[in-house]
Each structure stands twice: as structure tokens, then as C-alpha cells.
Design brief:
Radius of gyration: 19 Å
Structural class: alpha+beta
Number of strands: 11
Distance between the termini: 37 Å
Strand order of the largest sheet: 3-4-9-6-8-7
Mean pLDDT: 91
Low-confidence stretches: none
Number of helices: 6
Length: about 240
């Protein structure tokens, strides 16, 4: 899996709507790159850690702000779970019909389903994001997927429960992560990735080009380095 980051300048992409229009044009360009099996855009990568926000569960009331449960949020395009080979266990993945004019939807991970809907299929249930921006729509859960380390690596006591929303229904910022599942050497597709981006906006550049394996290695360097030291000291 080849990963990279792209940031859109505010001068040309002043709001989320402009960014989303660009991302919706970019995704099919990436999917069409020779050697790419699947492609996705997201606000983060598996194992890198997702931030948590307060949520409300359908049918439950909360007296105080602190009573709302926290859940990790991922903002993704269609193809995210296919790219990371996370098979949907119930319901469906996101599709291009999950756009700004479509029904607001969400996909939850196994940890979220077990915590908030024990013994019950959460597909069809609703949740709501609690954010300072104001009243948010209810999100209908359309799928359940495996845990993809939304809490990050090494946060052993962190809550892994989380959910994903389609990028087209989000207030995503100007920067996203690109992930391409490829046949053969992922790094060899970097020039084609740059060309796909330039075909839409020649002023843009990609940053932090790396394999997903390398991204995970950066998250675990502490354990590898100090584990080696402790083994040497032990010997």
C-alpha cells in the first residue's frame, strides 16, 4: 500500500465544499492508475490514531455534557475498507451515492458495536455527532467493520470504539491521506500518483510518500529500539 498526503491551499479551496469537489474528482483518477487495485482518501491512516468526539445514541438521554460517550471518528471515501482489506461483517460499505444530498450515514467498528449495541446488529440504528458547530443530523449506521487500530499503536488503555463517515458528508479539512493498494512495487507508482494529481491541479504537490508498512514502523519505533536495548542488556 502506497500512502501520501495532499494539502489544498485555502486560496483555491476556501471551504469544505470546494475540497470535497476536488477529492471526488481525484478518487477516480487514482483508481484508474495502472497497477492500482483499489484507492481511497481519508483524514488518517489505520494505526496512526483517530481523534475522539462526543456522540449521542438513538433513544438515550444525557443530562450533562460529560455524560455523552466518546468515539473515534474517521472521514473516508468509498474504497477505504477494500483498500485495507477490512471485510464488512454486517451491512455495506460506503458508495458514491453517500453524498451531500444523500441520507447521512455511518459505519461503526466492532468495538463500537460491542460497547453500545451488545448482542444486537447496529445496522439501521442512529447516532449523532456532538460538536460545537451546532446541531448535527442523525447518522444511520449502514455497516460494521473490523477494528483498524483507530486508537493508534501503544495506547493500550485507549478506547478503540469508533465510526466512519463519508467524506462527501463531512466538514473535512483541506488535507487528506491517499492510500493505493497496488500490484507489485508500490513505490514505483509514485510518478503516476503525482501525474494524476497534476492532471487536476498542476500547482499541487504530494508529501510524506511512504508505504503503509513504513508508517506502522514509525508508530512502533519505540518498541523496536528499546526492545533491542533491553535484550542486549539482558544478555
Amino acid at each position: 500500500i502506497l500512502t501520501a498526503r495532499v494539502d489544498l491551499p485555502r486560496s483555491g479551496y476556501p471551504d469544505s465544499a470546494a475540497s470535497i469537489r476536488f477529492f471526488e474528482q481525484l478518487l477516480p483518477k487514482l483508481q484508474a492508475v495502472p497497477g492500482v487495485e483499489s484507492a481511497t482518501l481519508s483524514d488518517g491512516l489505520p494505526a496512526a490514531g483517530n481523534g475522539a468526539i462526543s456522540i449521542q445514541l438513538e433513544g438515550k438521554a444525557y443530562q450533562h455534557q460529560s455524560d455523552y460517550p466518546l468515539a473515534r471518528e474517521g472521514i473516508v471515501t468509498p474504497g477505504f475498507f477494500e483498500t485495507f482489506q477490512a471485510k464488512v461483517s454486517s451491512g455495506r460499505e460506503f458508495s458514491t451515492s453517500d453524498n451531500a444530498s444523500g441520507q447521512p450515514v455511518a459505519i461503526v467498528n466492532d468495538a463500537f458495536a460491542t460497547l453500545h449495541f451488545p448482542g444486537v446488529d447496529p445496522v439501521g440504528r442512529q447516532i449523532k455527532r456532538i460538536v460545537p458547530a451546532g446541531n448535527q443530523p442523525w447518522l444511520t449506521i449502514v455497516g460494521v467493520v473490523p477494528n483498524l487500530l483507530m486508537e493508534g499503536i501503544g495506547n493500550n488503555n485507549a478506547n478503540p470504539a469508533g465510526y466512519y463517515i463519508p467524506i462527501a458528508q463531512s466538514d473535512v479539512a483541506n488535507g487528506v491521506r491517499i492510500a493505493l493498494r497496488t500490484r507489485g512495487d508500490a513505490a514505483s507508482l509514485t510518478p503516476l500518483l503525482r501525474a494524476a494529481l497534476a492532471s487536476l491541479d498542476p500547482e499541487l504537490a504530494i508529501h510524506e510518500v511512504s508505504s503503509l508498512r513504513r508508517v506502522i514502523e514509525r508508530q512502533t519505533w519505540f518498541y523496536t529500539t528499546f526492545g533491542t536495548f533491553f535484550m542486549a542488556f539482558g544478555i
